[in-house]
Design a protein that fits this description.
With 290 residues, the chain is mostly beta strands. The protein is elongated and about 120 Å long.
């Protein structure tokens, strides 16, 4: 019997490559379209002492508001109306007619009891080497009357933006972030701002840790006022949330909470509250990965 021809081998099919996931992020500061942004924040309340004409306070309380109803920002482009939902879900509405400043990197509203600003940290606000695209900071200051009929000075500091999605959070290596700190503080003898420029925070993506030292100075007198060297030590969750505590050699303690923002966690933002002797303060830290 004559053998038949040997059949040609069946070719091995080419494996279909696993698609690389893609993630879309919208700019956090864009006045041309409606925006709704979750916020993370802290609140400082100081009871104004109206018995004197000096800048002095009675009871003072600063707290990180990370365990209550999440605040948020809503912006309507056509009317330029801004709504800030506070930690108790109460929303403060700022109308377009109350906008006192509109710039390339910030807007400010002014009404009868205070002001609110929504801003993009960058060369003009920080300063930072370049503008943050996916992270914003929000400041709200009010002087309402409390239940006893006395005036309170209320300062709220928020950070928010386009949060890095869990599948886009790095899991290896580390990142060094150039950050700026802005905040407010109060003690019985008066209030002041807090600032820090060109500071560094490090995120170890493999160990899931956040560390760094930021020296906060008085904004009114950087060379002679408050100077607090704050050590940040925290954890990074799989979804990009960060949280932890802060301390200083001179007795400051506090907590912070925040988030990685933008593609691959390229930006970072957090809010904090601190106490040191009679001083209490709140603020935000924001920056970009180098």
């Amino acid at each position: 019997m004559v053998p038949g021809p040997t059949p040609a081998p069946t070719p091995t099919p080419t494996a279909t490559p696993t698609p690389v996931p893609t993630f879309a992020y919208s700019p956090a500061f864009d006045l041309s379209q409606d925006r709704s942004i979750p916020l993370i924040g802290a609140e400082l309340i100081a009871q104004i002492d109206t018995s004197t004409n000096s800048n002095s306070y009675g009871a003072i309380a600063a707290a990180l508001q990370d365990a209550v109803v999440n605040p948020y920002l809503n912006y309507v482009a056509t009317s330029r109306q801004l709504a800030l939902a506070r930690f108790n879900s109460t929303a403060d509405i700022y109308h377009g007619s109350e906008m006192s400043l509109q710039g390339a990197d910030r807007i400010v509203y002014q009404n009868s009891i205070g002001f609110a600003s929504w801003a993009q940290p960058g060369p003009n606000l920080g300063p930072l080497p370049s503008s943050l695209r996916y992270t914003v900071i929000v400041v709200q200051n009010q002087q309402p009357r409390n239940a006893a009929g006395r005036l309170d000075s209320v300062e709220r500091r928020y950070v928010g933006g386009a949060a890095t999605v869990s599948g886009d959070v790095p899991t290896s290596g580390s990142g060094s972030y150039t950050v700026v700190l802005t905040g407010a503080s109060a003690r019985p003898t008066g209030g002041d701002g807090l600032i820090a420029q060109n500071a560094q925070l490090t995120v170890d993506f493999a160990a899931r840790t956040v560390t760094g030292t930021v020296i906060a100075l008085s904004s009114s007198s950087p060379s002679a006022g408050e100077r607090i060297s704050l050590l940040f030590q925290g954890q990074l969750a799989a979804d990009g949330r960060i949280s932890g505590g802060l301390t200083s050699a001179d007795g400051a303690t506090g907590r912070f909470a925040g988030q990685l923002y933008g593609p691959a966690g390229g930006e970072l933002g957090l809010a904090f509250a601190l106490q040191r002797d009679t001083l209490q303060g709140v603020g935000t830290v924001a920056g970009l990965r180098r």
